[in-house]
Every structure is written in structure tokens, then in C-alpha cells.
Amino acid sequence: MCVCHIIWSSFAPYGYLKDPKNKNHLVVDEDIVAITKDILRWVVSDGMSLAGAAKRLNELGIPNPTAYKRSLGWQYHNPHAKSNDGLWTGSTVRNILLDQVNLGHMVQGKQRVVSYKVHDRVAMPEDKWFIKHNTHEPTFSQEEYDALARILQRDTRTPNGAREVHLFSGFLRCRDCNKALQRANAKGHAYYCCRTYREKSKTKCTKHSIRDDVLEAAVLAAVQAQISLLDSVADIVDELDRSTATEMQTKRIEKLLREKQKELERAQLLVTGLYVDWKSGEISQEDYRFMKSKFDADTVRITEAIANLEQALRHLNQEVTSENVVFAQLLKHKNVQQLDRALLVKLVDTVYVHENKEITIVFHFADELKKAPPERGVIKSLLPL
Question: DSSP 3-state assignment of 130?
Fold first, then answer.
């Protein structure tokens, strides 16, 4: 019968040192934590690839974790130590960034030896790891770590020779075949096009072509609109007396909602009546068009107000206020004027591109803030042709 033994590391993980006062406690290695934070910023905020980050570290002459541990005089050994040249690779960067030690958690049992006779090590599945939370000072916030994990789950390959990924790398999908969109350059502009159409078959899908600058402007406008909507919800909630019971707050919003719904019904009846008057000859076609455009604008305004009030009710039921962590993080960006990759990673899950140049944006916070049907938390925008 094979007996498996868990390997417990006798060395502090990269970025930390063993506390001289308590060998079972970790303290931050100030010399290294600055490096890990730099790598995090390069990948999350600057859009640098893992390979690009490794190349920069090597150019700066920063030894990789194995070489660093040896430089401290540690008798550090691993199966690949002899062939280790002290240089960083993309996989090393990934492993260092995703180590939960950065969150202040101690993870043990990632590997095991087969038996006391066979000392080969085998990796253990994540659900078999032993994780003890909050054992030491973290170097990454949970938000930073989550943003990083989302980036590394995407296909973020870079063009030959490039270090940084493009703004939308890993975010774009064809709305029809669900394949990633591919970036290309033509006539001085960057375009995105369905990968199925471009590489596999022009009969299985269509182009779904969209220009990079047009897409960026549309996504920025949609992000601004969504944040503005959340801001308006915050205003509605903040106007209510927080010291009163939730029931009283709910009743007030429900009353406003009923009033707006009746107002919408009246506006719709006016449009219907206007059509009848035109067909019966009581008003001219010119008067009909003028009045209908006014009623249509009123209908849009009332519909938006109803959507805001319904959303306010949902947020109120979930105790969503400006103090809510997710809510507050979003409102930090309410004056955003330019998209960057860090903001995109924080807010957006996927951007779907339709053949008619409409885009559908799925936001990360749809489930966290709304708890609503799938179409909530999704912004659709029709792009100019």
C-alpha cells in the first residue's frame, strides 16, 4: 500500500522572510515586495504579458526566486535547481503572482512524495491543498488579486516582439459563433474580425468587423453610462433617511415607481391617440411627426426613470449603499474619460460584437449588485457604421 506524505516547505515563500522572533510566522521582505508589486502593476495596469514582464525583470538584472534564495545563503533545492540559470520565465512570473501568500494566506500541501521509498514529487489538485487564512501581512489586496486572476484566464498572447497586450486582448467575442475576435491592421487603422470567418470558414460565420478606435469610444461611453446609472441609484438611496426602517424606504420608492408607470401608460395612450387623429385626418402628417417625436422622447425619459427606480429597490433590498465595497469601487471611476486596461479588467467581463456593429457588454458586477435577470448588467450600444 502506497503511503503519501505531504511536503511542508522549510523556506519562506518569495516576498517574505521568516520572523526571527517566531519561525512559524512570516514577515514581508521589503526588498522583494516592491518587485512583486511592480510585476502586478505591469501585468494588470500596463497590459504587459507574462513573457514581457519576465523579459523586463531579466533586463533589470533581478534574479529569479531560486537564484534569490541561494543569494541569501539558503540551502535551497528543487528538482530543477541545477539547471536554473537565474533568469525569469513567463511561468515563473505567473506562479509568483498567483501565490495566495500575497493575500496573507499560507498554502501548504501543493505537492507530495509518492512514498517513503519513492521520493518523486507529484502535484496535488487545488482542492487538496491546506489553506490557512490571514496568517501574515498581505502584499496584494483581494481586488488586485481578483483582477490579476481575470487577466490570466484570458487569451492574452502578444504579437511577435511585443511586450504589452492590446487594450481589448482577451475581452472580445463574436456574438454569433462565440469565438475570439482577431486584431488586424488595414489602411492605417486597427480592426477586429471574427476568428472563425478569418481563419476557418467564410460560410460558418460573418466578419463582425469593427474598428479599434470606434470600439474603444463605444465601450467608454457604455462604461460611463453604467457608472452614471449606479451613481443615480446611490443618489436615490442616499436621499432616503437611513435612520428609518427599510420598509418605509421601500414604500417611498414603490410609490414613485407606481407614479412613473402610470405616467408611462398615459404617454403610450397619447401616442396611440395621436396615430388615430392622423389617420382620421384631424391632424396633418407634419404635426403628427412633430408631436410623436416629443411623446417618444418623454417615453424614453420615463422608461429610464422606471429602470432606475426598479434598480434602487433591488439595491435597497441588498443594502447596497455608497459604503458597499463593490459599489464604492465602481463609483471611484464616475469621472472616467479614458479607457485603460486596468479599468477594463476591473469592470468588464466580455464584449460581444454583432454583425450589425452593435456591441453587448457584460459587466463583472451584474450578479454582485443586481441579482437580476441576465439582461441586467448588460449594456447594448449601436455603433456608427
Answer: strand
